[in-house]
Specification:
By secondary structure, this protein is of the alpha/beta class. It has a single domain, classed as Alpha-Beta Complex (2-enoyl-CoA Hydratase, Chain A, domain 1), CATH 3.90.226. The protein has eleven helices and eight strands. The strands form two sheets. Strands 1-2-3-4-6-8 form a six-stranded mixed sheet, with helices on both faces. A two-stranded parallel sheet has the order 5-7. α3 runs antiparallel to α10. The chain starts with a strand and ends with a helix.
């Protein structure tokens, strides 16, 4: 029922992920995502990457609450949240441009995926929320990617007001989304047009541009692991365990 798959056609590698619980991200899926992104970045026949999820509802609901509820030690917590570190850093280090196709709402780690993409194309209604504080943790691992993309003030507001959605227009004004379209067809046409254009651009020039866009982030290898350890510790709190159980009982 859950998967990550990659297909390459005419220089465009499409990486698609799916999970039946609103495209949430368990550790196995996170590892697969990081692997496919890294692999695509090393392939000469890949000129540009399109990251997308399956279905017609949520783009990504963030961390899998089912797995979060089963964490019983700081070591297990670190292992789980390091999955997000692996994906964000794989996207950062990848020498190919990554276009995110955001067809629905983004929560937590889903916002991190959109932020770590080099260019995000969304549909109207692809609202966002960093809900981590609501369950007693915080957007520690994805935080650097989100803050880099939308700025400290907007990131702070999003992280503190963890119960509220920001709409897709807000996300575009703050720079998370490069484009917002009124329909799936229009969004997909925009993704197709840009990815086809980039597939015919000089790959060396794009690789150098990516280095320029991601300057001063080499320390993220250690930073995101340190942040993963914070999340891995906090997820063991009684507050978080109670909050997750309440959420699971409502879903």
């Amino acid at each position: 029922m859950e998967y990550v798959k990659a297909e390459t056609h005419q220089g465009i590698t499409t990486i698609e992920f799916h999970h039946p619980q609103s495209n949430s991200l368990p550790i196995k899926l996170l590892h697969s995502l990081a692997h496919e992104i890294h692999a695509a970045g090393t392939q000469a026949n890949t000129k540009v990457i399109v990251l997308r999820s399956a279905g017609e509802k949520a783009f990504c609901a963030g961390a899998s609450f089912e797995e979060l509820s089963q964490i019983s030690s700081p070591e297990e917590g670190l292992k789980f949240f390091s999955g997000f570190e692996q994906v964000i850093n794989a996207m950062r280090r990848c020498p190919k441009f990554i276009i995110a196709r955001v067809h629905g709402k983004c929560v937590g780690g889903g916002v991190g995926l959109a932020a770590a993409a080099d260019y995000a194309i969304a549909i109207h209604g692809a609202d966002i929320k960093l809900s981590e504080l609501s369950v007693g943790i915080g957007p520690f691992v994805v935080g650097p990617a989100v803050e880099r993309k939308i700025g400290t003030a907007a990131f702070t507001a999003l992280a503190i007001d963890a119960a509220s959605w920001r709409n897709s227009d807000w996300a575009k004004r703050k720079g998370l989304y490069a484009e917002v379209h009124e329909s799936i067809d229009n969004m997909d046409e925009a993704v197709r047009k840009l990815s086809d254009y980039l597939a015919h651009c000089n790959p060396d020039a794009m690789a150098e541009m990516k280095k320029m866009f991601w300057k001063d982030t080499a320390h993220w290898d250690q930073l995101l692991m340190d942040r993963a350890a914070i999340s891995g510790r906090l997820v063991l709190s009684d507050f978080t365990k109670d909050a997750i159980e309440k959420f699971k009982s409502k879903s």
